[in-house]
Specification:
Length: about 160
């Protein structure tokens, strides 16, 4: 029996629906990676999930940073640097995996989980407060909500 590595609750919400939905996807991918390791699905399967997680993370960061720019977020540079630091660490790991110098382990999962939880609860929530205070749309329109629930069309682009 597998258990979730990261259980999403509304307490992790930052108040911006698009960002919260993307965070849920990141959590889901992290849990998929956890399941693959826990159930011994093999390094190839784990690597594919890790690569998908890395790609989705880059896209999520781009969306988040775009919202920060349009709302003139004062901590933008520091927040962006946090994103770049994580991307650099994951790229270094991917290179080590390619060279046989590393493996995807529970320790890696723990690091990613702690990083994501801390980043959401601290940096992203601070941005959410700023975004809402500066008139940002926090909810999708009914039309977008309907489209998003029908199918996850955005995977084609990400």
């Amino acid at each position: 029996m597998t258990t979730e590595l990261f259980h999403w609750t509304d307490e992790f919400g930052v108040g911006i629906q698009e960002i919260d939905e993307q965070h849920k996807e990141l959590v889901d991918l992290l849990n998929q990676l956890h399941t693959a390791i826990q159930e011994h699905h093999g390094s190839e399967t784990s690597r594919k999930i890790l690569d998908k997680l890395a790609d989705y993370t880059r896209t999520h960061f781009a969306v988040e940073e775009s919202l920060m720019r349009v709302s003139n977020y004062p901590d933008f540079e520091m927040h962006k640097q946090n994103h770049e630091d994580l991307i650099g660490q994951v790229q270094a790991l991917q290179e080590k995996l390619d060279n046989g110098q590393a493996a995807i382990t529970f320790e890696l999962l723990h690091f990613l989980k702690v990083w994501l939880m801390r980043h959401i609860n601290e940096a992203d929530k601070r941005f959410g407060v700023h975004f809402m205070a500066h008139g940002g749309e926090t909810q999708w329109s009914d039309h977008v909500e309907s489209a998003m629930k029908k199918r996850k069309w955005w995977w084609k682009f990400w």
